[in-house]
Each structure stands twice: as structure tokens, then as C-alpha cells.
Write a structure and sequence with these properties.
single chain, about 130 residues, mainly alpha, two-stranded parallel ribbon, 7 helices
Amino acid sequence: MRAVDTNLIVRLFVQDDAEQVKAARLALAADTVFLPKSVIVEFEWVMRGVYRETKAAIASAIETILATANVEVEDAAAVARAVDWFRKGLDLTDAVHLASSGHADGFVTFDAQMRRRSQGLATRPAVIAP
């Protein structure tokens, strides 16, 4: 198993450097691939901030990653839940934090926007003020 960095995943989706795309494909096909949750979070940031991709396109890309047979995403169930919440209005990083905290009684934050957005989604755990 190999863990890969965000830049390999980005190359596959943006296809902006033919040589790197080919190298990324070969690297990803050679073995089972492990993606830490942090790579998924950084992928969203790069796709949104650098490539100006839409939320829908980014969510679809992450869902493609989750569905790829030889890719093992850290805490895939939490990432999938986070992508659903992301599609419904939460920031992806906040959604990953929250989805990864499912075993907790509550998620405490000063972020009023996160609290407001999560209320309509019936997230578990509930997002609460300190």
C-alpha cells in the first residue's frame, strides 16, 4: 500500500500537466492507495481556491475517489458523511471535523456560521456554542 499526496490526486482531476498525469496514473495503479482525510481536505482547498471549481464538482470528485476500488480513504464513512454535509452547505473542513467526531456528545465551536448551518442538517454530534 502507498499513501499519496494531494498533488497526485489534483493532477488526475485537473489534467493540467500531461507528464504528471501519466506519472500519477502509474503511481496510483501500481498498488492500493491510502488517502488520509487531510489529503481530502487539502484537495477541496486546492480545487476551490486555485482551480475555482464548484462545490458540486468538488463533491463529485471526492465521491469518485471514495468509490475507486484500489483507494482506501481514512475513515471513509466519515468522509462520505462530510461530503453530504458539504453539498448541503457546510464547509468541507468543518464537515470532516464534525463527521470524525461522531462518538462525541457535542461539537463545541465559536463558529456561529457552522452552528447555524449544521442545525438544519441534524448533524451528529450536535454543534454547540461553548
